[in-house]
Amino acid sequence: MSSNLFSSLTFWPRWFWRQLTSMRTALFLLLLLAIAAVPGSLYPQRSADPNGVRVYYDEQPEFAAFLDALQLFDVYTSVWFSAIYILLFVSLVGCVLPRTKIHWHALRAKPVKTPANLNRMPEHRVVEGIDLESAQAVLRKNKFRFELQGNSISAEKGYLKETGNLVFHYALIGVLLAVGLGGGFAFSGQRVLVEGDSFVNNLASYDSFSPGPLFYEEELEPFTLKLDSFNVVYDLTNPANIGQPIDFIADVTLGAEGGSKKSEIRVNYPLEVPGANVYLTGNGFAPVVSIFDGEGNVAYSGPVVFLPQDGNMTSLGVIKAPDALPEQIGIIAFFYPTAEKLESGAYTSIYPDPIDPLLTMNVYTGDLGLDSGVPRNVYALDTTDMNLVAGRKGPVPALELRVGETAELPGGIGSVRFEGLLRYASVDIAHNPGGVWVLVFALLALVSVTLSLMVPRRRVWFRELSDGKMELAALARGDDPGLGEMLDRLVLEVREGRK
Q1: What's the mean pLDDT when you consider all of the chain?
Q2: Residue 319 in contact with residue 289, Cβ under 8 Å?
Q3: C-alpha distances in angstroms, 182 versus 149, 179, 187, 252, 430?
Q4: CA angle 434, 438, 442 (to 5 degrees)
Q5: How many CA atoms, within 13 angstroms, populate the side-chain half-sphere of residue 125?
Q6: What does the alpha-carbon distance between residue 254 and residue 274 come to, in Å, rounded to a whole number?
Q7: pLDDT, tens digit, for every residue of 48-57?
Q8: Which residues contact 12 (CB under 8 A, 6 or more apart)?
Q9: What's the pLDDT tens digit per position in 179-231?
Q10: From CA 61, how far away is CA 67, in angstroms rounded?
């Protein structure tokens, strides 16, 4: 009774382990992992695009909350993605280790005994004019492992095929380890730098920061980065491509322990800094705006980051002046680098470079909601408790300003001045120590799988018959269209060796 109970308790765990460690399950989990990664490219991820997540919440709050509940804004750190990842790792390890043991014993074992009925093999020959001694010399020359077994020779080659297959799977395990451990010690931080701004590598200087679970703030290495200028190169030669950007160049000054130096950051050409790399991820315009309140005081002054809305860099920006008196002022503004007025009266940009820059503003007064204790998106303006005082549907038209112009706000609440125009660059400061190892293991996997596909696994037998003839046979693992040709070549080489 107790033995039956023990058997029933151990049956299902053994069955589950056998299923989990089968090659079929490993392949299925690998496919499932690829499918699970798809949402990471469809939806913005907090680790790489926190502003995109905020925009999603602003535009579709209920759907965004549903996606967040499914962890689709944190795909690569989600419970379900991690579960697939861990199961794949366990499956590969449990699959490869027993196969390695079997392969090791096979490498050390002698060739199999010559079968009694060689005529059942896929390739079979009975020939004259060869002998076992000459056959051994040819087999040795062709890198076969062989053994003389009385009046026959058993030979085999192609163990490199299984070796390559095993190395491929170990390389996959290495990739998983490198990604997992590398992600644990990695960090990624984002910062928007306007021309003239400087960045100091500490947590307070980042707009957003995503550390790995094994990363600590003390590991940030000191350096400074100043954006001197940002330039965009446009295509001016191809008539069908006029105005399309062909290069983005951020001229920066890097300061570290060894001093400071001028450098560049370009798309696909990151800047190496102490303990990290700096990647260029975005750019846009930052109009310099000053707001004067009704008492003549400066309520706001400085560059404002505008978010591009189309290919011609029509950009949207929000300006908030919470210290304005007698009422707080909020502005939703559009920037047109090369403005042109449409028949409808609306403006559009016809070229991405600032040839004829124009700033239009919808002005609101009232409570900006900054004192409520609820975090507010700096790129959005909540107009629930505000009044429109200048805009398309307001008491006066929207303000229109070009560089150097000033406009009075209605009702004597102040004025706005368009001081100048700067560019900004969005940069990603990232460090992942597993990146190099991922590349190494990926290359190893590519080489090993190529080896396993190209090397054939074959067995060959020679047996002397009583009438002086020689019986030959060959067997391959899987399809091998060249098996017969290989056997004929061996016969030819044996005959030539006897001459």
Answers
A1: 88
A2: yes
A3: 53, 5, 10, 28, 12
A4: 175
A5: 21
A6: 10
A7: 677 678 778 8
A8: none
A9: 888 888 899 889 999 999 999 999 999 988 888 888 888 889 999 999 999 99
A10: 10
Rounded average pLDDT over 353-373: 87
pTM of the model: 0.73
pLDDT digit string (tens) for 214-223? Answer: 888 888 999 9
Strand partners, 193: 425
Token pair listed for 393: 């549907």
Q: Rounded CA gap, 56 and 49, in Å?
A: 11
Per-residue pLDDT for 419 more than 90?
A: yes
Contact 444, 164 (CB under 8 A): no
pLDDT over 70, % of the chain: 96
SS (H, E, C) the chain: CHHHHHHHHHHHHHHHHHHHCCHHHHHHHHHHHHHHCCHHHHCCCCCCCHHHHHHHHHHCHHHHHHHHHCCCCCHHHCHHHHHHHHHHHHHHHHHHHHHHHHHHHHHHCCCCCCCCCHHHCCEEEEECCCCHHHHHHHHHHCCCEEEEECCEEEEEECHHHHHHHHHHHHHHHHHHHHHHHHHHHCEEEEEEEECCCEEECCHHHCCEEEECCCCCHHHCCCCEEEEEEEEEEECCCCHHHCCCEEEEEEEEEEEECCEEEEEEEECCECEEECCEEEEEEEEEEEEEEEEEECCCCEEEEEECCCEECCCCCCEEEEEEECCCCCCCEEEEEEEECEEEECCCCCEEECCCCCCECEEEEEEEEECCCCCCCCCCCCCCCCCCCEEEEECCCCCCCCEEECCCCEEEEHHHCEEEEEEEEEEEEEEEEEECCCHHHHHHHHHHHHHHHHHHHHCCCEEEEEEECCCCCEEEEEEECCCCCCHHHHHHHHHHHHHHHHC
Q: Which residue has the tokens 């549907």?
A: 393
CA pair distance 315, 338, nearest whole angstrom: 11
Which two tokens mark 10?
A: 């151990």
Q: How far apart are CA 499 and CA 491, in angstroms?
A: 13
Tokens of 54: 């905020």
